Amino acid sequence: MRILLRLVALVVVLAIGFVAAIFIASEYGGEVVVVHTHDGAGEKVTHLWVVDDAGFAWLRAGMPDSGWLKRIDANPDVTVERAGQTQHFKAVPVHDPGVRDRIHALMREKYPTADRLISVIRDPNGSVPVRLEPVPG
Asked: pTM score, two decimals?
C-alpha cells in the first residue's frame, strides 16, 4: 500500500511539474505579445507568441477550438501590445497547410526549446496561424 501511495504521489508531482514547465515555456520562452479580443461579455486578454513573415506579424492557435481563436472568428478586430507599443489589427485565421507549416517553422526557430515542449500537447496539423493586418488609425 505504501508503494502505491508513493507512485501516486510521484505521478501527481510529475503532472504538476509538466504543467508548470509548459506554463513557464509559454510565458517566458521568448517574445510574448498581449492580444485583446472581444466577446459579448467584454474584453479578454491572451498572451501569445508572435513571429514576423512576409510583412505581417503572425500568431498561432495551438488548437482550432482555442477561446481566443473563436473570439476572433466572431470579431476579428483586436488590439496587440508588442514591445511597448499598442496597435489595432484585423486578425485573419489562415487555413492553408503550407502557411501553417511555414509559421510552425518560424515559431520553432524563434522559440526552439519552448516550442518543442509546447508541441507535446498540441497537434501541429490542427494549429491555425493568424495573420495580423494593421488597421489604419
From this structure: 0.81
